[in-house]
Specification:
Length: 320
């Protein structure tokens, strides 16, 4: 479950006190969640300083550079060299990689070797708002520290539309297969709308840059940008899909909160609908349906075919 940056830091301090700090962490979270600030405080915690930890002699920080905003293998090689050197103060060393999802393929493979065989007394901190763009082998070698934004963001138009769809479905009291497939179709239309809008936005952004690269004859730079925008399009689409799944999980969570007399709801504007749901279904059934959505997220992480994953999950979540 995502934490606030302060909650995460408290847990990391406890791990440090107990001598249980991992050698590699992946800090993830949306804008406003404090990922950069936590990375800096964790660096200071490891190095034993609160005074500008990133400027410490044993802290080695890299982030995207150049026109393509990618992390080149040369940066990874340099950080590896620094981490293998003797510590300036005889203590631990820390390597920090911001926007780790922007590692080029060669850099990602080189970094994987560093994770597999970390230099002595070294810790690695990766930061990413799009961890699904990282190699699975990199993800598996890091302890993820997921953060959430302190201020809850406003609903997007598609999230609002999904809530209206769920409200309508709840009002019908449908728990049959036909109703579940009807929800799948409406959800799929929302995803198609998101994919088209994101594609149009990234295509327009690329087109603006294309003329400049063609003007200077930088074909390699243009290819890098094309690859970047392709990855960005996919990452943004997955992010939108994730946010829509989260809305459905919150829908059932609000129903469970009603059952237990809790006043705080994720979507108070739809309290009447979720209260009706709470009355109509026992707690085990609500939990089972919520679990189906959690499984859907896991299946997407395993690259299960999207439409098949959706249909199976919706049958479990919305059909009796």
């Amino acid at each position: 479950m995502p934490l606030t940056a302060d909650e995460a830091l408290t847990r990391l301090r406890t791990a440090k006190t107990q001598g249980r700090l991992a050698h590699a962490y992946l800090i993830t979270g949306p804008a406003g969640s404090g990922t950069r600030e936590l990375a800096e405080k964790l660096t200071g915690l490891i190095l034993g300083t609160s005074e500008a930890p990133f400027k410490h002699a044993d802290a080695h920080v890299i982030e995207p550079e150049s026109k393509s905003r990618r992390i080149r293998i040369e940066l990874i090689r340099e950080m590896e060299r620094e981490l293998h050197l003797r510590s300036s103060l005889g203590g631990p060393k820390v390597g920090v990689v911001f926007d780790a999802d922007r590692l080029v393929e060669q850099a990602a493979n080189a970094f994987l070797k560093t994770l597999e065989e970390p230099p002595a007394q070294s810790h690695l901190i990766l930061v990413s708002s799009q961890p699904d763009q990282l190699l699975e082998t990199i993800l598996s070698r890091c302890i993820e520290v997921p953060l959430r934004a302190v201020v809850k963001p406003a609903l997007t138009p598609r999230q609002e539309a999904l809530l209206q769809i769920l409200q309508s479905h709840a009002a019908q009291g449908s728990t049959d297969v036909a109703g579940a497939f009807g929800l799948v179709q409406q959800f799929t239309r929302l995803l198609a709308d998101a994919k088209e809008a994101i594609g149009d936005e990234t295509a327009a952004a690329l087109k603006k840059e294309e003329a400049l690269y063609n003007q200077v004859g930088d074909r390699k730079g243009l290819e890098d940008r094309e690859e970047y925008f392709k990855a960005l399009t996919e990452a943004r689409y997955r992010g939108e899909r994730e946010r829509l799944i989260e809305v459905m999980e919150q829908w059932f969570a609000d129903a469970l909160r009603h059952q237990h007399g809790m006043d705080t709801l994720d979507h108070p504007a739809f309290a009447a609908a979720t209260a009706t749901l709470a009355t109509a279904m026992p707690t085990p059934q609500l939990l089972r349906r919520s679990t189906a959505l959690a499984e859907l997220r896991e299946n997407f992480n395993r690259n299960v075919q999207e439409q098949l994953a959706l249909e199976c999950a919706f049958l479990k979540a919305f059909a009796a």
